[in-house]
Amino acid sequence: MMVLKPGRRPGPSLTRDSILDAARHLFGERGFDATTIRDIAALADVDPAMVHHHFGSKDKLFTAALGAPIDPREHIEAVLTGPDDSMGERLLETMLAIWDSPIGIAGVALLRTSIQHEWGAKLLREFVLMRALTPIMQHLGLPEEEARWRTGLLATQISGVILMRFVIKLDPIATASRADLVAAMAPNVQRYLTGLLPVREF
Amino acid sequence: MMVLKPGRRPGPSLTRDSILDAARHLFGERGFDATTIRDIAALADVDPAMVHHHFGSKDKLFTAALGAPIDPREHIEAVLTGPDDSMGERLLETMLAIWDSPIGIAGVALLRTSIQHEWGAKLLREFVLMRALTPIMQHLGLPEEEARWRTGLLATQISGVILMRFVIKLDPIATASRADLVAAMAPNVQRYLTGLLPVREF
To answer: For site-directed labelling of B139, which of A107, A109, A177, B7 has its Cα 20 to 30 A away?
Structure first.
């Protein structure tokens, strides 16, 4: 338990918490793009300079609001570097390597929150779209509607392997080597990325 | 709030609850096959006849313990009937039709419980394996280790589409027609069922 010493003001951590609360609310309601630092500061009733002071940037505030242990954007380069027709393999390898590391424990907590709370689900949608998958689609240069469809399909496969390997711990998915999993799943992920999909009216 | 009338004994519903608690504990610990009605009755401190009286069979007790709104075994025939090379399509169509119906609401609650509680995760593992996917693998006549591997891979894809469509509600997966989703995903599901997978040492 934290004991407040006489003369020490509880300001900074309360300010930080109210900024995080406001950020979760607005990112969840409006999405990442339509939310400004100024809006968040206004809702938290603090000066925008305080938001910059505590979190540095909107990107970093978003990651903090979500409780995400890493920013996927920092890992996306490893996925994009190389031939497009083996991107599925690199995406799986990069993503599973992160989740297999100690960071994965925080990831499981994040996934549990997203599934339990509506604001968590909203933030995860933004996170999945903005951070992890949209840069890949931009790299592939697809039309927007097709990119959203492929992104969604990718999310079904990637979220499912995370759920089964790290949360539900279904054998042999939980105990398989990463190499075996990547080899077995890469063609499926690749099909969602660049393969032929049935014609769909958008 | 339930008010107990004088003279009315609270016995039956307490008995039912203690049987359910014991069932969750033992199914979770030992799995479906290794758990007997007799074990559950002993742990709940009731006569085995009471278990049969309240739940009818071990199958029905398992479904009740999990809080599952349906028993997938009753729907498996629709998946197994037809050519093996279009089984992926029938599996997706059958599964999504159930989740798109009002039953899906109870399904989401079940998935939330499984993700939140360790006993829920254990029961879901049993449920996925015993109920939904094992009969399909038996039908395909695969060696046990390969069947478990394919079952696990299937579970990653199927759980992921359920998570994105019904829990996280990621667009366009949440809003797509069932026909579009089945068409886009069926080849991936089919590959896990009967397609060529990389050699793996079991």
So the answer is: A177
Distance of alpha carbon B202 from alpha carbon B194, whole angstroms: 18
> What is the spatial distance between Cα A117 and Cα A36, in angstroms, rounded to a whole number?
23
Domain of residue A19 covers: 11-66
Mean pLDDT over each residue of chain B, to the nearest integer: 84
* Pairwise CA distance, residues A111 & B149, whole Å: 24
Closest chain B C-alpha to A155 CA, distance in angstroms:
7
Q: Which residue has the higher pLDDT, B5 or A34?
A: A34
Max mean pLDDT among A105-109, B6-10, B84-88, B127-131 falls in B84-88
CATH of residue A21: 1.10.10.60
In a domain, B202, yes or no: no
Collapsing DSSP states into helix, strand and coil, what is residue B155? Answer: helix
The fraction of chain B above a pLDDT of 70, given in percent, is 91
Final residue before a domain boundary, out of A38, A66, A94: A66
* Interchain contact B12–A (C-beta under 8 A): no
Cβ count within 10 A of residue B136: 20
User: Closest chain B residue to A190 measured between Cα atoms?
Assistant: B188
Its ipTM equals 0.76
- Whether A3 is covered by a domain: the verdict is no
What pLDDT, in 10s, does the model give residues B26-45?
Answer: 877 777 778 899 999 999 99
What token pair was written down for A91? Answer: 């995406």
Partners of B198 on chain A (C-beta within 8 Å) are 180, 183-184
